[in-house]
Every structure is written in C-alpha cells, then in structure tokens.
Specification:
With 105 residues, the protein is of the alpha+beta class. Helices cover 46% and strands 22% of the residues. It has a 3-stranded antiparallel β-sheet with strand order 1-3-2. It is globular and about 40 Å long.
Length: 105
C-alpha cells in the first residue's frame, strides 16, 4: 500500500470503522495479495474499505442479507468472499469461529 502501511496501522484504523481485529487482519492480507497479483498499489482509505467490504459473524448472518443466495458458493459466484478464523482464548479452552468478509454487491 502507498506509504507502506503496516498491518498494525491498518488494523488499528479498520477496528475504529467497525471491523474486528481478526477481520481487519484478514482484509489486510487479502488487499496485500490483491496488490501483488495486480501490481496495483492501493491507498489506505478506511471509509472506502468500510463501504466496499462488510464483515459477518456467521454464515447465517451473511446469507440472511442476500435473498438470492442460499449458500456460500452462491455468494462466491457474485463477489469476493474472504473466510477467516476468530480465536478466543479462555482459561480452560480455545473457541474458534469461522467468520466472513464480502465485497459488497
């Protein structure tokens, strides 16, 4: 990204715009890969990223937003779907949840 934005700055910024820590990390990694593949340098524009991408806590929540989509494959047929894991560490166990970010369509 222009100005060599670190993952730390990106995460801190995107958390302020409503993304979770893990979601901001997944979005950063996706955008970095996009830059490498396309050779197109992006600018840190949290308002644009917040408008272009939405994070969902569950598959049910995501699918409820799109009436024409009944599966994650339907979502993938229409837009970019970023899957990531959110880990919570408790004293006696670790809880891992699958979460999703999509590029809004």
């Amino acid at each position: 990204m222009k100005d060599n934005v670190s993952i730390y700055k990106f995460r801190d910024t995107m958390v302020k715009y409503g993304f979770s820590y893990h979601g901001a990390t997944a979005l950063y990694e996706y955008l970095e890969q996009y830059e490498e593949e396309t050779q197109h340098e992006l600018e840190l524009d949290p308002i644009a990223f917040n408008c272009d991408f939405t994070e969902y806590e569950s598959e049910e929540e995501l699918l409820s937003e799109y009436d024409d989509c009944n599966t994650l494959e339907d979502i993938e047929d229409n837009t970019t779907l970023i899957r990531f894991k959110k880990e919570d560490h408790f004293s006696d166990k670790v809880v891992v949840e699958e979460r999703f970010i999509i590029q809004n369509f």
